[in-house]
Amino acid sequence: MENIRYTAAGPHRGPGRRALLAGGTGLLGLLVLGAAATTTVPRPGAAGSVPAGPAGALRLGFFANLTHAPALVGTAMGFFAAELEGSGTQLATSVFGAGPAAVEALNAGAIDAAYLGPNPAIAAFAASGGQGVRVLAGAAAGGAQLVVRASLANAAALRGTTLATPQLGGTQDVALRTWLATQGLETDLAGGDVGITPTANAQTLELFRAGKIDGAWLPEPWASRLVLEAGAKVLVDEAELWDGADTGAPGLFPTTVLAVSPDFATRHPDTVDALLRGHLAALDWINTARETDVLATLNARIAETAGAALAPAVIKRALGKLSFTADPLEGAYPRLLGNAVAAGLAEPASLDGLIDTTPLARARAATSTGTEAGA
Known about the structure:
Strand content: 15-25%
Radius of gyration: 19 Å
Family: Belongs to the bacterial solute-binding protein SsuA/TauA family.
Number of helices: 15
Mean pLDDT: 86
InterPro entries: NrtA/CpmA_ABC-bd_dom, TAT_signal
Protein name: NitT/TauT family transport system substrate-binding protein
CATH architecture of the largest domain: 3-Layer(aba) Sandwich
CATH class of the largest domain: Alpha Beta
Strand order of the largest sheet: 1-3-2-4-13-5-14
CATH topology of the largest domain: D-Maltodextrin-Binding Protein, domain 2
Shape: globular
Main location: membrane
Distance between the termini: 28 Å
Number of strands: 14
Largest sheet: 7 strands, mixed
Structural class: alpha/beta
CATH superfamily of the largest domain: Periplasmic binding protein-like II
Low-confidence stretches: 6-48, 369-375
Subcellular location: Cell inner membrane; Periplasm
Order of helices and strands: EHHEHHEHEHEEEHEEEHEHEEHHHHEHH
């Protein structure tokens, strides 16, 4: 298996400057870049393509992050490779730092499938007229918090502060802007009552330590790192904002999904099924293995892909905020898009066809796991 890492400093065998720039564009930029990619980059076997048997290779993208734990475990323990190699398909992996960059790679044909946040997947689907991406399964749910300086007691105290999110228009960015609006605080791209600065997670930690920002709406493990390593406190746990009406259980909301190029799925359905069987095996292991084994495996893979392991207390706290499920939590998507529209970061769009769980049903029927959360 080959790893290609895409970072802000420059990728190892990366996709070029354009894809790197896409990492910071968020939802607005993605609407432009996604459309450009799908209209200017030739895609093999596009319209009218027919199944062509197993693919020679599957190129899978993911983040070196706990919210992408099924990808970390699936690659570390060989779950994907075991399913793919039976049909002669080789696995190649690419590590990304942000959803828009991964979506751009999907659009450009540089990868075939990716673990993404739901908002980048929605944006790519809308920008491409429903042709750029299909969500096949859920991967992680929960695990996002607004953490701030201890002196900030409530929403009113945030007026005039500067907060960070991982990327403009990303899942946490939209969540923060939506929550601030419910508190009577205006935000816009030029400023507003609260300044929002899209910032890489690692830089957010350093800026918070240096007093340059006042808090951030972050996924795990970064919320836990600010709390345990930089003295931040939790002002909002996003789980408290989901009452279960959209997702079936209080506190449950999609954080990471597994998506695929629709063209690849059409041409290589057997390969997609194998990918999903590996995904289910990874979820089953995460949800049934001893906690110490899960922590050790994830931390080792994070050290390998991100360059540094997490402190034991951080990874333990972070995993306690997350759940791992193949359920894409489809009912959440209209709300997520509506929030992005209300925040001025998206246009209304149809989501019909974004989620296709037919391959997931086939994979579940072919495997005897059945114990992963949401099965």
